Every structure is written in C-alpha cells, then in structure tokens.
Fold:
Amino acid sequence: MTESAGTPADPDRSAADQDGHNDELQDRDESQGEGRSRGDGSSQDGPEGEGRSEEPLGPDVPAKRRHRWLRWAALATSLFVLVAAGGGWWLYRKLDSNIRTDTSAAAELRVYEKERPVSVVHDAENILLIGSDSRTGDNRKYGRSYGSSQRSDTTILLHLAADRKSATAMSIPRDLMTEIPSCHQADGKPTRKQFAQFNWAFQFGGTACTIRTVERMTGIRIDHHMVVDFNGFKDMVDAVHGVEICLKEPIDDSDAHLKLRAGRQKLDGEEALGYVRARKSIGNGSDTDRMERQQRFLGALVNKVQSNGVLLNPTRLYPVLDAATKSLTTDPGLDSLKDLYELVRGMRSVPTKKVQFLTVPRQPYAADPNRDELVQPEANKLFKRLRDDDPVAVVPADELKRKKGTNSDSADSTSPTPTPTYSGSNAATDLCEQ
Structure:
C-alpha cells in the first residue's frame, strides 16, 4: 500500500501486480493530494485521507470537471446577457429611427412665435394629431391625388390634464369654415389670409399652418404635433389583432374599399381604415357622423391596447410600437422613442373611461349647408375649459338630449361650478353596445 494522500491500493491485488505501478501511482497520488491539501491550506500529514478538508463535490463528478462546467456556465451567461443587451439596443435604435422629424414646421412656428398664445397651465399638454390623406405611394389606392399637396383628413386636439387623470380628444371638422392666416408654402411663397374650410390650411402651408389656424381659433397653445398616415393606422390595428365592432346594417362602399356584413365582427387594419373613412354609405352621410365613428373606434383601439396587457408584454408591444413609429412624423420634442415613452407612461394611469372624445360644437354653415361653422358661445366656452385645464364631461348624444329635455340644469344647480357636458364617448365604451 502506498503512503500517499490518494486512494489506497486494492488490498486484493498481489504485490507483484503493484510493482509495475507503484512509482506512477505514487507520483500521481502525491500530486493530487498536494492539490487538495493546498485548496484549504491544511496539511496532508496523518492517516490517509485526513489531510483533505474540502466538501465533496459529488459522488461521480471530479473537482476539475465541476470547475470547468462552472466556468462554461458563467461564460454562456455572460454571452447571453451581451446578446440580449445588443438585441435590445438594436430594437431601440430601429424603432427610434422609424420616427420622422418635422423640422420645417418648427422653423416656421418660430417665425410667428410672438403671435402664438402662451401656455396657461404648467404640465398640461396639448398635442395636435393630424391624419394625412396623402394619396402618394402606398396610399394611392384610397382616392384621387391632390398633386404635390395634401389635406388633413382628420384633425384632433388631444388635451392631457396636468394631473394625468384625464385626456380629452376634440375633433375639428375638416369642412369647418374658419380664418386661415397667411402661411408660407413649400416653395417659400406666402399665401393670403382667408376665410376657408379648415383642412385647406394643411394644403396651403402644411403642419405649421394648421397649428396656427387651430391656435387662432381656440386660443390654446399647441405643445406638440403628430402626423399619422393611412398605412400606419392599418398596421396598428393589425398589431393588436383587430378591433371588434357591431353593425346594424351591412356596408358595401366601393370608395372606401369596404364590404361588411351586419352584426358583431372583428375588423383587420384594411377594414378598419375603410370603416373610419367611409362617409356616404354609413349613417346619415355627414362628416360629423364619420368623426363620431372615428372617435368611438379610436377609443376601442385604446381600450384594446390597455385591456390586453400590450403595454406590459414585450412580444406584443413591439409590433404596436413598430407600426406606430413607422407612421409618425413629429415635432423635434417628440421625435425619439424616449420622448414618446415618457408621453405614453404619463397616460398609463388615465382610466379608459376618462379618455374622452368629442367634436367641437358645430352646425351647418349658413351660406353653405355642406360646410360647418362653430356654435357660439358654446365653442369658446369649451376652448376656455381646455385652455385652463378645467374638466369637461361627455355622454352619448341620446343621453344628452334626454338630460336637456328633463331640465338637467336645475338638477346640477346644487353644484357651484357644474362640469359642462358635451356629446361624445369614452374609451371604455363598447362599440357593440351603441
């Protein structure tokens, strides 16, 4: 038997069998014993095996193999973290680069800074959302082109309360007759100040002209703006796997590329775009009816995003962000993913029933019933409440008529400052309960 700190020799083996191996076994055992002894600083003196003080690593796994496995595991973990971080950075850069910046509008607005209204309430934000009806590129199939120009198909003033407990989206009819200031065209030539339908402002001088027209009309300072195109809207609906609606009657509208059956159904992006843009084939054919349909659908889209946990699920959130950022052209203050994230994060606490949609008080224009005009003083009262960050309430049109018919003013007389109520909807409204 050897006197090494290693494993004792087999007692059944003969001395002759040991002769040829003693030197080799002794060298190897002494080396292993010294390594184990050095591992914890203990001496190898004494009976066999007593010099080892380390805990056994396992019945079948040698120490070197276990240490090698740990090193590989650490290396693999490090590589995974690096790949994940690199992938995350790549996704961030991709989404960030999708957003286009409208530097020309910012430059134009600086020229007219002295005539623009000032912000009244700190931390409240007013964002102008413009749906572009450009018929160029992928949008060509949706109607005739206006040549090198385009008009705003949908314009919504989104007011975010300073406490972020409510959000009010006010639609401005495209056919509303209003004062449009002198604006610079794309070639630098100025247009004349004129009284015309609202969506001509976008055609005359782009986003800056539209912003200045809204500010003159409402007295509300526009803090940011976003221009969204048709395909971006379609992709966002597809990213949330469609939005459910209910129809009392079937729709067959060749202009809107839309053919739908009556009843409950889920619309994909292409169908949703036709639904919110259709005019003559749904309802009474008015632009007001179409705006109300757009508001209800946008509310349902907001509700779908929140109720399905999209904001908390990266695999579902990415397609929505990709579609949204690809469709956006914004001012320099919102042209990064970080800026948009901060905006969305501030709205996460807003209950869906407090995301409200309404249309500016309007009526048929006296000189042309195919155009609209503001109803005063109701319109100016609404503008003032939004400007001062005061609350407003919305209810369905039928309910508002019933309230007026039952002398609701007297019912609210107990409140010293009753919240004015307008015809509208909120994001919690179920489209199939309309």
